[in-house]
Write a structure and sequence with these properties.
Length: about 260
């Protein structure tokens, strides 16, 4: 019924599942999550994501280096291209710009972002873009590097309507996480209401950012339904429609088979 378009399940505390990955994925499927995209932030997590995707049919993987990673954890274009050759790697990222946590060496981060865009174009796979407090530079680099050729998604979107419009103009989807369920997220909720459902994905970003009513606790892919329910409430449509259309969008963008 649902696809969690962005999570990091290899970071989960599985004590609630007797530390059993098989049980975790079985119960996730039973909760209505048909597939999930396990997103990398560096080389070790890229390899782990691929390992999980090889073992579980419902799991797909991405490869990339998060903008907040250290210089020594960077991935070259050649390394990204090599990892992306795997049949279950469906995206490049997460990549992008994060000026909230990073104040120095912005040029290094920007070049890393450019390299990821070039790699995505080379392998013909979409981008997963993280952006925080870097609206102008993110869109500018996307335009300069022709990110529209690869396409992709603005993950865990928390920015303005203007930025959403600029990203959609480049052919990108907008993905909403549990943040949209927070009571103080009125501006983001207005953006979610305005973004066409045909340009939307939903995600958990698990184990982070658990939605209401689990805010402050460990997030899980099965909680993606609460994001869908909030979107349905904002748009005044049935949650089944949100689940259906966002799942179709995810399959179209990433080539995932459910």
């Amino acid at each position: 019924m649902y696809i969690d378009s962005h999570c990091h399940p290899y970071m989960l505390d599985l004590s609630g599942y007797d530390n059993n990955l098989d049980r975790f994925f079985n119960e996730t499927k039973q909760a209505g999550v048909d597939a999930l995209l396990c997103v990398a932030v560096d080389m070790p997590t890229a390899k782990k994501s691929i390992e999980l995707a090889e073992k579980y049919n419902c799991v797909y993987a991405s490869v990339g280096s998060h903008p907040s990673e250290k210089k020594e954890d960077d991935l070259s274009i050649a390394e990204i291209v090599a990892l992306a050759a795997h049949k279950k790697v469906v995206a490049i990222g997460e990549t992008g710009l994060d000026y909230y946590y990073n104040k120095d060496d912005l040029g290094v981060m920007q070049q890393r972002f450019r390299d990821h865009i070039q790699a995505a174009k080379q392998v013909k796979k979409p981008l997963i873009i993280h952006t925080r407090d870097a609206r102008e530079d993110t869109i500018r680099i996307m335009q300069e590097e022709r990110a529209d050729v690869a396409g992709g998604v603005m993950h865990c979107f928390t920015e303005t309507q203007a930025m959403a419009d600029a990203a959609m103009a480049l052919g990108f989807y907008i993905s909403f996480s549990g943040i949209v369920t927070f009571k103080n997220a009125k501006e983001l909720q207005a953006v979610a209401k305005a973004v066409p459902l045909e340009k939307m994905l939903i995600e958990t970003d698990a184990p982070y950012l658990a939605p209401m009513p689990y805010r402050g606790k460990q997030n899980e892919p099965k909680y993606v339904k609460y994001v869908a329910e909030k979107i349905a409430e904002l748009k005044q449509i049935d949650v089944e429609i949100v689940a259906k259309v966002t799942s179709e969008n995810c399959q179209k963008l990433f080539g995932m088979r459910v």
